[in-house]
Structures are given as C-alpha cells and as structure tokens.
Write a structure and sequence with these properties.
By secondary structure, the chain is mostly helical. The chain has one domain. It contains twelve helices and two strands. A hairpin with a 3-residue loop joins strand 1 and strand 2. Helix 3 packs antiparallel against helix 8, helix 4 packs across helix 5 and helix 5 crosses helix 10. The protein starts with a helix and ends in a 5-residue tail after the last helix.
Length: 354
C-alpha cells in the first residue's frame, strides 16, 4: 500500500507545483490555444490560454511511478512499464498535434490520417508486447481471453486480441479527447476513473492466485498497475487545480490522448476490458453523441444536437460552463460507482467470504 500512496503523493505534488512553471514557460513561448470560429462564442475569451499542459500530467505520472519504486524498493514490472509506454506513446502523438497547432497558428494539427497512423502504430506495438513477458506462473500482461470483470471463457486468437486491444486504445484515447472541450471536464472525469482502477488493481493484488483462494484474479502485476493508476490519478488531481474553470492551462491532445491510452492499458492489463465501458460512461456518452450527430447528418441532412460533442449542445442551449462541468462530473462519478459495484458484485457472487 505504501507504494500506491507514494506514487499518488509524488505525482500530485509534481503536477500541482510544476503546472504554474509550465504556464509561465508556455506563455513566454506563445503556445496558446487556438479557438474554432464555429464553436460557442463564449470560448473566444479562452484564445491564447496556454495549452500542451498534458506534458505536466505525463511527467508527473512517470515521476510518481519511479518514486514509488525508489522509496520502497520494488521491482519494475512488464505490465506497469507497458501501460506507461502506451501512455507516453499516445502522449507523443498528441504533442505532435498540439505543436503543429501552436506553431502554424491553426485549430487543426496533425491530419486525421497522420494521427490515425500514430495511434495505430503505438497501439499495435503495445498489444503485441502485452502477450509476451510471461512470469513464473505463465501469466502475460495481456490475455487472449475477452474480459469484463475478469477473464471470460471467450478466447481470441492473438490476432483477435491485437484487434480488440487497438479498438480499446483508440476508443479510450479519442473518447477522452472528445470530452476535453470544457475547463476541467476531462481531467476531473479521469481522476475518478483512475481512482477506480487503483481500487480494482489493489483488490486483485489482495486476491491474487497465490494460495487456495478459489475466487482469485489471474493478473500478472496487479500491485504495479495500482501504482500506475495512483500516479496518474495524483497527476490529474494536481493539474485540475489549474485546469478547473476558469482554466489557466489546457491539457491539449498531449494530455487527452495520453490519459486515454493509460486507461486503455489499465483495462487490458487488469483484464477488465469491457468494464472500462462502465467506468468511462461519460466518455462513452460523449463519443456516441458525435457518432449520432455525424450519422444523422449523412443520412437525413439534419443534426440531432445543436453541436457535438454533447457538452457543446448544452452550451448552445444556454447552460453555464461550470454547470455543465459539475453535472457531467456527477454522471462520471455515478458511472464509476456503478462499475465498482458490478466489479464487487461479481466477487461476492462467486461465494468468497472476504
């Protein structure tokens, strides 16, 4: 438990204290947010707000993870390092996108194809490596069994696993990216989901298949995954202090893609792939709003919402930004609570006395 607490505390402090320095640096270099002209007019006052704050979240997460291992010596694991690789790789794709935006002073960075290729490459490397590095019990970071709250009886081929893993990585990273449209919205939601994965991974660690417990979890490195989740949670908490409405800095695609990648990696390595749909209920709803909007317009030429993603529909309906953020946080919290309830209900239903 000490490792988890140290990871969360160090990443929180690094993010909380490092963000103001990053704000000053980004202002000096003129790395400000570009605002779309077709978006809500209330966003125009945000033009020039420093962006690429996701670099702070990423750095704080990595430092928190490293500090936890140095404070109380504990071996680095394949599962933890793979999730951090996925988080960092997706963050680099996002950084390239953000950098092009601020350098060329336009609201669009990487082309859709370039961003897709970057996400595809990082996601495929992660998926292939996740089926390697077996431990003494033969467990690898990823599993070819489709999972919900644990591995199911549905078995996939290695190719099928890679495909599913890429869909999860792409869906999670783009879901967080679409949610990151209002001050603090995505950051606050990510805090809750990472907190849920701290609970899930630590619970799996306490019920690992090392004894005679029939209701155990076949997960390679649950404690290290809890450390990663705690570090990411602490980093988001610290960043939220400066990103909450009215935001003094935005995470940009650097942050949203890296956080989505981390969530996907945790879901895959804790073997709770489909449970991420419940934990990330807010991200799912917002992503579906975009899909519905595009599909409806192509089929009928009409729009279902005033603007997509969904949060902008409510902005154009007259809701205050803070009201939308808080109410969407409530939705995110309810989704996380429901997901944890389902996770624990499965544990109890299997007859354990714990």
């Amino acid at each position: 438990m000490t490792h988890v607490l140290v990871a969360a505390l160090v990443s929180l402090v690094v993010s909380l204290l490092g963000t103001p320095a990053t704000i000053r640096l980004l202002r000096e270099r003129g790395y400000g947010q570009l605002i779309r002209d077709d978006g809500p007019t209330t966003h125009h006052i945000k033009r020039g707000t420093p962006t690429m704050g996701g670099t702070v979240i990423l750095a704080a997460t990595l430092l928190g993870y490293a500090a936890a291992h140095l404070f109380a010596p504990y071996q680095f694991t394949a599962s933890g390092l793979l999730v951090l690789f996925l988080m960092t790789g997706m963050g680099l794709v996002g950084f390239a996108d953000d950098y092009i935006k601020v350098r060329k002073q336009r609201s669009l960075g990487l082309s859709a194809r370039a961003k897709l290729v970057g996400q595809l490459g990082i996601g495929l490397v992660f998926a292939v490596l996740a089926l390697r590095f077996p431990n003494g019990s033969g467990l690898t970071p990823g599993s070819t069994h489709l999972s919900f709250v644990r591995d199911s009886a549905i078995s996939l081929s290695p190719v099928g696993f890679v495909l599913i893993a890429y869909i999860i990585v792409s869906g999670a990273s783009n879901g967080v990216n679409l949610t990151d449209g209002l001050d603090g919205l995505a950051t606050g939601a990510c805090v809750m989901v990472f907190g849920a994965y701290v609970v899930v991974a630590f619970w799996e660690f306490g019920n690992a298949c090392t004894g005679v417990n029939p209701n155990c979890y076949q997960v390679r490195d649950p404690l290290d995954l809890a450390i990663v989740a705690a570090a990411a949670m602490g980093a988001c908490f610290g960043f939220l202090w400066w990103n909450a409405p009215p935001a003094r800095i935005f995470m940009g695609d650097t942050g949203s893609l890296s956080l989505g990648g981390a969530l996907a990696g945790l879901a895959i390595c804790t073997r709770t792939q489909l449970l991420l749909i419940l934990f990330g209920g807010l991200f799912v709803v917002i992503t579906l709003s975009v899909i519905i909007q595009v599909a409806a317009y192509k089929v009928s030429g009409r729009r279902v919402f005033k603007m997509a993603p969904l949060q902008h529909h409510f902005e154009l309906s007259g809701w205050a930004e803070v009201t939308i953020v808080i109410r969407f946080w409530i939705i995110a919290g309810l989704a996380v609570a429901f997901g944890l309830g389902v996770f624990y209900a499965d544990f109890v239903a299997r007859g354990s006395l714990l």
